């Protein structure tokens, strides 16, 4: 189960599901397939539909983090998609080939746009999402501009 903490993130999730062919009721910002609202007013993904939709769009690796919420999707040989600050920052950066960091046993993706710099360090170690408790196969450090954000991810191929 993955927590969706804001209406903007929920909207993006519903759009992703609709693009993947899921039946999303028109105008329904409160629910959708595999999504429910908690008693605290947060939205929670209860299925792997978002991850499957990303895979169908060609995403090879997807990483998520919390506080503030962020998502990075890797489209090999095309682009790196970044959604940060609970959906208020979104951009595509040019594709960057992963560079192995043998000392840290990780791979590093480094790219930039005129407005943003991105460095993502992916390490194959078990990782648990801090809000949902969901387990992942990789720990991820996202250096976005001057900030360092932590999260988890998994391969979708």
Tags for this model:
157 residues, mainly beta, 2 domains, nine-stranded antiparallel β-sheet, 44% strand, disordered N terminus
Tell me what you see in this structure.
This protein is mainly beta and 157 residues long. The protein has 2 helices and 14 strands, in the order βαββαβββββββββββ. It has helices at residues 7-19, 49-56; strands at residues 2-4, 35-37, 43-45, 61-65, 70-75, 79-84, 89-94, 99-101, 106-112, 117-123, 127-128, 135-136, 138-144, 147-155. The protein has a 9-stranded antiparallel sheet, covered by helices on one side. Strands 1-3-2 form a 3-stranded antiparallel sheet.
Strand and helix layout:
Elements: E1 2-4, H1 7-19, E2 35-37, E3 43-45, H2 49-56, E4 61-65, E5 70-75, E6 79-84, E7 89-94, E8 99-101, E9 106-112, E10 117-123, E11 127-128, E12 135-136, E13 138-144, E14 147-155
Antiparallel strand pairs: 1-3, 2-3, 4-5, 4-14, 5-6, 6-7, 8-9, 9-10, 10-13, 11-12, 13-14
Helix pairs in contact: 1-2
């Amino acid at each position: 189960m993955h927590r969706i903490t804001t209406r903007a993130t929920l909207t993006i999730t519903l759009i992703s599901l609709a693009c993947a062919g899921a039946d999303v009721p028109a105008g329904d910002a409160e629910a959708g397939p595999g999504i429910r609202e908690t008693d605290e007013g947060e939205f929670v993904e209860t299925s792997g539909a978002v991850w499957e939709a990303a895979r169908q769009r060609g995403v090879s690796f997807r990483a998520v983090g919390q506080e503030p919420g962020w998502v990075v999707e890797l489209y090999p040989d095309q682009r790196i998609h970044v959604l940060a600050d609970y959906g208020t920052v979104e951009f595509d950066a040019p594709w960057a080939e992963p560079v192995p960091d043998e000392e840290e046993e990780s791979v590093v993706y480094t790219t930039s746009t005129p407005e943003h710099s991105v460095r993502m360090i992916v390490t194959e170690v078990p990782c648990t999402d801090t809000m949902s408790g969901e387990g992942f196969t990789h720990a991820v450090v996202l250096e976005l501009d001057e900030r360092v954000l932590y999260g988890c991810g998994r391969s979708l191929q």
